[in-house]
Amino acid sequence: MKVKLRSALSTTHGITAFVTVISILILLNRIVDSQFIEYVKQTQNIKLENIITDISHQYHDDWREFRIRQTGDRALEDGFVISVENSQGDIIFDIAKERESSPEELLSDISKSMKNHYKNWVGKITTHERRLIHENRQIGTLFISYYTPFYFTSEDSKFINSIHEVITISIFLSIFFALILGLLISRSISIPILKTTKATREISKGNYDEHISETFKIIEINELALWINKLAKDLKEHELTRKRIVSDVSHELRTPLAAIQINLEGIVDGVLEPDEERLEGIYKEILRVNRLVGELTKLARYENGNMELNRRVFNLKETLDSIVYTLEPQANIKDIKIIVNKTNVEYYGDEDKIKQAIINLISNSIKYSNENGRIYIYLDFKKGNTILEIKDYGIGIPKENLKYIFERFYRADKSRDKSTGGFGIGLTITKEIVEAHSGTIQIESKVGKGTDVMISLPGGKIIR
Ligand code: ADP
User: Which stretches make up the HAMP domain (predicted)?
Assistant: First the structure.
């Protein structure tokens, strides 16, 4: 069964409040009752002793019935029916006889209110006999009848009833406020969730500009909203990148393919001569298409999630030497000098991939350096990290392009591609490789001044 969060929260809250409060009510009533019964029993004992003392004090050489009657009337109000016998065994006072009623009739008010209060109350009138003593001599006997094991006088009943009333009222008020609070709490949770859901639904439809602008009081929901906004922003960027990639790839493919098509059509129609120069041109275009497909395959392999690292310990200094050795001929074409300053560092990683990343960076520096340029390479180990820096004094990258530089197919200046032959994939791959090794890559660049790429890879060690 599916229920709305709001109903679920309010119902749970309501039930919890109800059960708790009713349990407290039952418990409290029981405690109050048992404590009160204890109290009543104690006061009744005291009252009983007082009656005995009171009656004993009425004796002055002889009994004074008038005084005894007063005490008897008061005792009856407290729930005691008394009769007094003198030392000769004659009854000198019997309130039941005087009022011509039985003790049950005299105490009927008590039994009624007790039955009201306790449905299962079975009161039994018990008569106790107490000796009356004056100056160490028995002057008579007191017979005292009352309900056992306990009873409440009308005063007691009034008192305990009002306590129960107060408890019940406050308990029901608590339930009422708990329910109101439950409703408010469930509203304060469900409304932000509904708003967040609405925004998420819009985002899933592709309306990435839809975002949650409100700040909610519940920290977790606020956090959720922030991440949903971030997700929408990322999705928007991904969507734009996807569109750009499709258009870039088709553009990259269209140009060489169109050139190949036109040339081949001309040759087939006999309009163009299939001379060496033309065939070489066609061949170059085919090479370019092939290179692009190769780059795309490489990218797919290196992209997040697809990269498998084949780690082993290798000497990074030696790897760097071999890369520089391979790239030097390219640099020599433009009379570029590569100056290497390296510490003997051993690193645990995927040598082939790290090699690929370094080749990409040095190749870029060669590609974007002017004739007679200089490229500095530093390899070091600092604070537990292997540091690699490649610095050139080439054409640099405009500041506004720097933040996109690691994106696929991003070229700072589209017109550069023809001369440099790049597709804007090298830095993307480099970054993926560095991050797969839990490292970071930073790039600083100034147009006309040059570019400085810094890589920091956790781990490694200097070897002597
Ligand atoms: P590409 O294959 O086009 O060189 P990259 O991803 O390696 O692709 O580089 C992306 C873009 O960044 C390049 O097109 C270029 O405009 C710019 N770039 C990269 N490295 C340098 C550099 N050292 N100097 C100047 N521009 C650079």
Answer: 187-240
Residues 387-409: tens digit of each pLDDT? 999 999 999 999 988 988 988 77
Distance in angstroms (rounded) separating the CA atoms of residues 379 and 314: 14
Task: In whole angstroms, give the CA distance from residue 412 to residue 402.
Answer: 8
CA distance linking residue 180 with residue 60, whole number of Å: 70
Measure Cα distances from 439 to 125, 346, 463 in Å: 93, 16, 21
**pTM recorded for the entire structure:** 0.54
Residues with CB under 6 A from ligand 1: 360, 364-365, 368, 392, 394-397, 405, 410-413, 416, 422-428, 451
Inter-CA distances, 352 with 22, 102, 236, 296, 437, Å:
72, 113, 34, 18, 13
Residue nearest to atom 23 of ligand 1 (CA): 365
The preferred substitution site among 427, 433, 455 for testing ligand 1, maximizing ligand atoms within 8 Å of CB, is 427
- All domains of the chain, ordered by start, with CATH? 5-171 (3.30.450), 219-303 (1.10.287.130), 312-462 (3.30.565.10)
Tens digit of pLDDT for each residue in 313-358?
A: 999 999 999 999 999 999 999 999 999 998 999 999 999 999 999 9
Could you tell me which residues come within 8 angstroms of residue 286 by beta carbon, excluding any fewer than 6 positions away?
256, 260
Atom of ligand 1 minimally distant from the CA of 392: 23
